[in-house]
Amino acid sequence: MGKRRNVLLIVVDQWRADFVPALGAGFIRTPNLDRLCREGVTFRHHVTTTVPCGPARASLLTGLYLMNHRAVQNTIPLDQRHFNLAKALRLIGYDPALIGYTTTTPDPRTTGPRDPRFLVLGDIMEGFRSVGAFEPNMDGYFGWIAQNGFTLPPKREDIWLPEGVDAVPGATDRPSRIPKEFSDSSFFTERALTYLKGKGDKSWFLHLGYYRPHPPFVAPAPYHAMYRPEDMPRPVRAPSWEQEAAQHPLLDFYLRNIRRGSFFHGADGDAASLDEAAILQMRATYAGLITEIDDCLGRVFDYLDETKQWEDTLVVFTSDHGEQLGDHYLLGKIGYHDESFRIPLVVKDPNAPARAGSIESAFTESVDVMPTILDWLGGEIPRAADGASLLPLVHGSKPADWRDALHYEYDFRDVHYSRPESTIGLGMDESSLCVIQDEHYKYVHFAALPPLFFDLRDDPHQFRNLAEEPAYAGLVKNYAQKALSWRLRHAERTLTHHRATPQGLETRSVRAPEESE
User: Fold this and answer.
1) What integer pLDDT is reported at residue 509 of this predicted model?
2) 392-401: per-residue pLDDT in tens?
3) Residues marked as catalytic
4) H or E element: which one contains 315?
5) In the CATH hierarchy, which top-level class contains the domain 12-515?
6) What global pTM score does this model have?
7) Which of 41, 108, 229, 287 is most exposed, with the fewest beta carbons within 10 Å of its own?
8) Which residues lie in Basic and acidic residues bias regions (predicted)?
């Protein structure tokens, strides 16, 4: 293979873009991510093409939009026919290692209904070699801390309760009951260093996943007290949750139905009633969890430095999706708001030192990560991939046909823990939306609900829906047509470049101009 070429793909969970110092988050300390931004290219306008975890990771690792891979929600199977990054890496001689999870539900046609993977949100995507699994039940993690001498409580998830018998579950300035040495972030880091030290001088690909800053929002000491609530950015929201709810039936559903217990272990109450003090404390804890990950990444980066592998390694840092963090009275990753979809992306290519420290403003999407890694390793980018390699942008050359807007989707059909479909009164296949968004406007199209349209110059936080305003009728039509054209261009195309001819099978290898973005 010639000179060693390694890839470190870091995928954190629920880290939103405006908590990245290089993008303006001066209130948070991440020296190792800062280093990566100084040595790589940071992407300012990057989104996941769908939420939540399972669909987002399916798009990240297959390079396909939600409308093509159709693993539309957590618990929904991923069709086994779809190619993915791990399978592609095996074709070029890599044994793709995975630490963490992909939240992938298997294709039921390849197994039986008694398969225990159908009892959980998801498992590991086909093609990866797990070297530090967290899913499906976190057994590997809990076993690790027990093996290291920590006594687990009868209900093992209680390690994420605030310290102290008098602690009240919820937004808190108290540390978790698990010390940092046994946190899940430490577990993933130990697994990463074990894997890397075992590889010696062989080339490697490592998907290094971290569970944080995903809830429950409680951090181990000293990270629980690293940030003051008063130093956190204030939530963006209307004067009341009822005013927010009036914008759209889907938003009304979530504001009435999101519970605190999904974000603070053992807590009661609804998310929409969190006051500002609680939100700011939650954000301070969230920032602490981020700094804990950064410290862990520092250990991995130091090892790559010590072994002279840093200069041979493509490093990609990203998240699966964002987090509402109280903005618009919401928690989690849902709907159509920017906070759920805008995520970090940093690419450090050792072959592109001239652009080190750059901030790239082109519109980029999570489906671009798979093509980028394959391009860097000399692999073939699948015809079906909806994304494009970012290497031209990393090297300072924006392709003439690069996309001029961001695109993302969300499917809100019923799953066992959330039932918007039946509450609103829709059919399963009507419960979806797609978004097209550029620097000026954002259009949200629903399969069976009213659309939304926002003028981002006058209303960057998207409080005022202009879809029914006569003055915007022409723009709404234009953006609806753009959304339709986007879907038509990206309809599934695995075999559409082949055709039969009188001379036999013909394969077109170059996209025609009308097929480009």
Assistant:
1) 78
2) 999 999 999 9
3) 53
4) strand 313-319
5) alpha beta
6) 0.97
7) 108
8) 508-517
